[in-house]
Every structure is written in C-alpha cells, then in structure tokens.
Amino acid sequence: MEKKVIELIGAEIRQHENVIMRDVNFTLSEGEFVYLVGKTGSGKSSLLKTLYAALPLEKGEGHCCGYDLTALKRKEIPYLRRKLGIVFQDFELLSDRSVSDNLEFVLRATGWSDTKAMESRISSVLELVGLERTEHKMPHALSGGEQQRVAIARALLNTPQLILADEPTGNLDPKTSLEIFNLLIAISQSGTAILMASHDVATMQNLQCRTVVCDHHELREVQTPAAIFS
Ligand SMILES: Nc1ncnc2c1ncn2[C@@H]1O[C@H](COP(=O)(O)OP(=O)(O)O)[C@@H](O)[C@H]1O
Ligand SMILES: [Mg+2]
Question: Over 60: is that where the pLDDT of 230 sits?
C-alpha cells in the first residue's frame, strides 16, 4: 500500500475560538499532487497551518509525515518541519544575500556543515527547479517566477516527504503560474507529495489533477478544478 504522508480523520480546523472547518477527512499519499482551492477566507491557510503545527489540532485525528498532530509536543515541531517543505506566496528570500547563500543558510540551520556536501546539494536543488548556475545571483536580479523557483529549491533541500505550498502563484502572472504549477507536478512525480493551495481557479481550470475544495466550513473532493465551475 502507498505510504500516507497526510491523514486527517474527522479533524476540526480552528483559529483560536473560531471553527474554520469541521469533520475534515483527507488523505495524501507519497508522490501525490493535490490542488486545494477555495475562496479567500475559506480556510486553506488554516488547514496548511494545522498540518505544519502552527495551529493545534484538538478535535479529530491527524497525522503528517509520521507525526501525530494531536499529540505533538512543542519541541517536536522542528522535527516535523524538517520532513516537510513550505512555500509561500511572497517567496521570503533573504534579500541581502545570493541564491546560494540563501540555500546554505537553511542547510546550516538544519545541521549541515560539510562545505562540499552543501555545494553539491545546492547545485542539485537548483537543477531540479531549472535554475542551474544562478548560485551567485542576488534575489532582486531574478524575476518573480525565478524567485519562487529558488523558494521551491529551498523547500527541497532536505528531501522532504511533503511540500505545502500556500498560494505559491499568488504574485505571478498566469503564464509563470502555470510554469510553477507544472514544476510542482514534476516534483510530485519524483516522490514528494504536494498540497498546493490557491484561490486562482481560473488559471488552473483546464488542468487535470486531484482537487479538494474548502467551502462552507467543509473540505470536499472534486474530480478536477473545472468541476468547481459546473
Ligand atoms: N491569525 C488569525 N486569527 C484569527 N482568525 C484568523 C487568523 N487567520 C485567519 N483567520 C480567519 O480564519 C478564516 C480562514 O482564513 P484562512 O485560513 O487564512 O483562509 P484562506 O487561506 O482560504 O484565505 C478567516 O475567517 C480568517 O479571518
Ligand atoms: Mg490563505
């Protein structure tokens, strides 16, 4: 059987005293790509935050990358976060240092120290996202799409089981959005599960991929993004 990277059973997603989603049942397996859609404010980010333990799971069951979210201790959160990569809308690269130094900063923070091994990992992840030989460029010298590729490369550094992407195409034009989307699909095909949240259904409506919708405090599975319009 395929390994489950995420499993939520009857989970309640909350923002403090407010219930954002009830009875969420959702499974994501190794190497799977799922598109998470829903209007602004429907709870996509809250669901992702629950998965990376920025919000507690107090009702229902939840496992993410082998960690029981209901039993997770504060000191275990960094270990969970090392098994997953997170990509946000606004790239969040450090603007005062090169691409390579941005990536090295994360490697050092997660326990790497061998310079040769770091150099080799950095060039591998940049190759994976199609940005060979950009090591010495500064973030501001890259386009928005390229900066998002660096952020995806950064998320891949520690070979995560899962990437959670929260509106990764939110600041990009439709053509670049599709390129980022296709890159994430390709990454999922090499084994990393991906859950990508977006409210931009228009750009993606002709794509074929497993899609879940946040709507009316529920998470519902649909066949393709296009099904939302029918
Ligand atoms: N930090 C917060 N504190 C309290 N309520 C929040 C917070 N962040 C978001 N919310 C509320 O949670 C609901 C879902 O928001 P969010 O998960 O950000 O939706 P989406 O990502 O789909 O736009 C909204 O009603 C929003 O106002
Ligand atoms: Mg959001």
Answer: no
Give the residue whose CA is nearest to atom 3 of ligand 1.
15
Question: Over 60: is that where the pLDDT of 229 sits?
Answer: no
pTM over 0.85: yes
As residues whose CB is below 5 A from the ion ligand 2, the structure lists 44-45
Expressed as residue numbers, the domain containing 152 is 95-159
Mutation choice for ligand 1 from 12, 17, 45, 88, CB with most ligand atoms inside 8 A? 45
DSSP characters for 41-97?
A: TSSHHHHHHHHTTSS---SSEEEETTEETTT--GGGHHHHHHTEEEE-TT----TTS
Ligand 1 neighbourhood includes 16 CB (under 6 angstroms): yes
- Amino acid 80: pLDDT: 95
Minimum-distance ligand 1 atom for the alpha carbon of 166:
21
Q: Supply the CATH number for residue 210's domain.
A: 3.40.50.300
Specify if 88 maps to a domain. Answer: no
Region 85-90: mean pLDDT is: 94
DSSP-derived letter for residue 2 is P
Residue 44 Cβ contacting ligand 1 at under 6 Å: yes
Among protein residues, the one with the nearest Cα to ligand 1's atom 2 is 15
Q: Are residues 167 and 202 both part of a single domain? A: yes
Report pLDDT digits (tens) over 101-115: 999 999 999 999 999
Read off φ and ψ for residue 221, nearest 5 degrees: -90, 135
Ligand in closest contact with the CA of 21: 1
At residue 186, the pLDDT reads 95
